[in-house]
Each structure stands twice: as C-alpha cells, then as structure tokens.
C-alpha cells in the first residue's frame, strides 16, 4: 500500500509499513502543484511542490512490489480494504487533476507538468476523469478552475 497524506499540515509518504514525514506543507489556501514519486528500485522517493523538489530520500521500502488490481482512495484513510473511514481523517480542501503513472517521473518531467499543465506522454494508471467518476460521500465537483502558470483562482 502507498499512502500520501497530511499529518499536522506536513506531507507524509507511506509505503508498505514504512513512512517518511516531510517538512513540506501546502496549507496556505492557494493552489499548489504536488507530485510524489516512489520506485521500488532502492526505494527512491521525492516530493515536489510547484515543480521544485522539496524533499527526497532513498531506502523507503526498497524491493516492495505494489500489486495491480487495487483501489485508489482519495481524501480519506481506509483502515480496512475499501472501508474503515471516519470523518476526522477526511481531507478538507480541493483536489484537481490527480494522475498516477507507472513510472518514476524525473525532475524535468515534473517541472514541465507544473509549469505548463501539458499532458504527460504516458498512459496513466489512474486519470482524473476516472476519479471524478467515482465520487462518494457527499463530494461534488466544482467548476473548472485555472491554476496553471502561477494563476490562482479568486
Ligand atoms: Ca484511520
């Protein structure tokens, strides 16, 4: 299992029973482009904000294989497979354009994504339309916002 979540306003990356608490935060009320990479090879990982690498490391669950066929939970913490949710652990805020790819993005890839919002040239594991199609728990989609190229919605 891979988790990426906020704890006390800090992003935490969790992979197969190991976690790293970063000093990265994005709770200023503005839109930010967040990207997380992890690879089983050496357990290399990185957290980027607005295209810049803010935290990185190695040896986070190296060699672990994430099996296919699972589910993606956005905005909640599942304590059992597909369940065990509770309100205090819900994400409070807005998320847009979440994608998951089967490769480790490189810093130059992330910079392009963050600065241009251009599509990444690879088939994704999860794409934003897939996620919008699976909303549950009283969530509702908001009108499209334009937060690329340094713009923040007003
Ligand atoms: Ca929980």
UniProtKB/TrEMBL annotation:
Organism placement in taxonomy: Eukaryota, Metazoa, Ecdysozoa, Arthropoda, Chelicerata
Similarity comment text for this entry: Belongs to the pentraxin family.
Pfam annotation, one family: Pentaxin
Domain Pentraxin (PTX) span(s) in chain numbering: 1-148
Subunit structure: Homopentamer. Pentaxin (or pentraxin) have a discoid arrangement of 5 non-covalently bound subunits.
Chief subcellular location: secreted
Keyword hit for Transport: no
Keyword field contains Transmembrane: no
Source species of the chain: Cordylochernes scorpioides
Listed name of the protein: Pentraxin family member
SUPFAM superfamilies: Concanavalin A-like lectins/glucanases
The record's free-text note on cofactor binding: Binds 2 calcium ions per subunit.
Subcellular location: Secreted
Cofactor(s), by name: Ca(2+)
Protein keywords: Calcium, Disulfide bond, Glycoprotein, Metal-binding
């Amino acid at each position: 299992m891979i988790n990426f979540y906020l704890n006390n306003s800090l992003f935490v990356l969790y992979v197969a029973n190991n976690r790293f608490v970063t000093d990265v935060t994005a709770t200023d009320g503005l839109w930010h482009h967040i990207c997380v990479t992890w690879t089983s090879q050496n357990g290399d990982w990185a957290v980027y904000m607005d295209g810049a690498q803010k935290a990185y490391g190695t040896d986070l669950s190296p060699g672990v294989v994430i099996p296919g066929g699972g589910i993606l939970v956005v905005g909640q913490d599942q304590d059992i497979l597909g369940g065990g949710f509770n309100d205090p652990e819900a994400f409070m805020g807005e998320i847009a354009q979440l994608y998951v790819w089967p490769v480790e993005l490189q810093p130059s890839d992330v910079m392009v994504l963050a600065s241009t919002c251009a599509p990444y040239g690879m088939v994704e594991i999860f794409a934003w339309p897939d996620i919008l199609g699976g909303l549950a728990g009283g969530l509702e989609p908001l009108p499209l916002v334009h937060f690329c190229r340094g713009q923040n919605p007003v």
